[in-house]
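Deliverable D4.2, example record:
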Amino acid sequence: MCGILAVLGCSDDSQAKRARVLELSRRLKHRGPDWSGMYQHGDFYLCHQRLAIVDPASGDQPLYNEDKAIVVTVNGEIYNHEDLRKRLPNHRFRTGSDCEVIAHLYEEHGEDFVDLLDGIFSFVLLDTRDNSFIVARDAIGITSLYIGWGLDGSIWVASEMKGLNDECEHFEYFPPGHLYSSKQGGFQRWYNPAWISETIPSTPYDPLVLRHAFEKAVIKRLMTDVPFGVLLSGGLDSSLVASVTARHFAASKAAKNWGPQLHSFCIGLEGSPDLEAAREVADYLGTIHHEFHFSVQDGIDAIEDVIYHIETYDVTTVRASTPMFLLARKIKSLGVKMVISGEGSDEIFGGYLYFHKAPNKEEFHRETCRKINALHQYDCLRANKSTSAWGLEVRVPFLDKEFINVVMDIDPEWKMINKSQGRIEKWILRKAFDDEERPYLPKHILYRQKEQFSDGVGYDWIDGLKEHAAENVTDKMMLQAEHIYPHNTPPSKEAYYYRMIFERFFPQKSAMLTVPGGASVACSTAKAIEWDSNWSNNLDPSGRAALGVHLLNVPNNH
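Output generated by the structure prediction step:
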């Protein structure tokens, strides 16, 4: 993932302003250690910190159209860029960058082209002919993006909050699936799938359709000119990602350039559930497996750095980001610049344990819609920022636009947990890859119970965090919590501890408001707590809060 920073219409084109913008851009250098670029047009500044994944030699940014009237700075990957180039036969491309198509698509279609992009992206496009601009963010918010407003009338855009928080009177996260147009003077939604309206779908489940759609999503993410690997926790989602990647790896450019074996990576406390399961899956798939260990103290020592980079005080996100942050550093040290991961599956399939309590298929479906819409503040934020902290890119095939449409169009009755029929969470995904002739995974891995990532790395991790927080937050401090933090009041000492660290780095009110709040059990939304009256007394965001809801014997024939 790259880093972008843009200052638009600040009424100051002095050398001092340019120097200040460059200084702020350097706060994002961890995201793009390969190259820095800056473009200035009057009082418009576009900066880019590049992590080179596709076309490392000539794809430096900003990018332009033929006469350089259209200027673009982009963070992301456009997976269908080759097809889009073919649809632009009258345009001359300067680089092999997958993102250059954005400038030419704007020439052809004006502002109505964003839905043509298949990929993950945040970009700022400046049309120097009239000084108009557009800003856009990908459908789900896999790339991070913030927008802010200065007292001088300027608009600021940055990949991370730290690029603009000291300069803006107000700032907020840029909404996923939206476009900001200077001509229109505001936001407009460009991503409008059927599930956004929470209409209940009725398409019957077809396991082969689901399987082929996921394989297609994985294959398109093999687009890279640099070494890559897979994150492998040994759970269902990461194991399927690894299995499908391994099947198609030999035909990829990376295999031809960097060797025929896929690399896999895992982290955990000594003896954690993930390490053992990941080792078994890696052996089964024949990957070159890299297993890393961390101690509770290692994680605690990293907490401040983690919160600085992920820019949130949400408890579940901090818990899960810390081991991922530590793992990303290890991966980057091996020369790997991109990894494929399993985020998003639990949201689209209803895979969290609390979904066992969904009262009907309508509520089940609506909760998946709510979870997808919130991903950019939780798992997407974690995956993006904890890896970008070390200049590592993460790709997430479960959140492929086409694949989401396939999954969210299935009658949710098929997704419901049904103990009498032996259906555990994500049964339709498990069944789609239950191939007797060419097994994707061992049966017991394919039907392994869901673990929250922060639980799977080792149960002592969360307990250690709580103990550490209790040493730093007193009972007296908790008694005054609602007065110190009236918005999103910390409900626990752990939450209070993270909030103190966050506000030291990001003291502005706007920063505080970018973080979601509300009650949660086992990663649920606040609405889903209504499904079980007992949950209101056990508001632990860890997956352990819902353990015991699906202890059933899954028959061998599934």
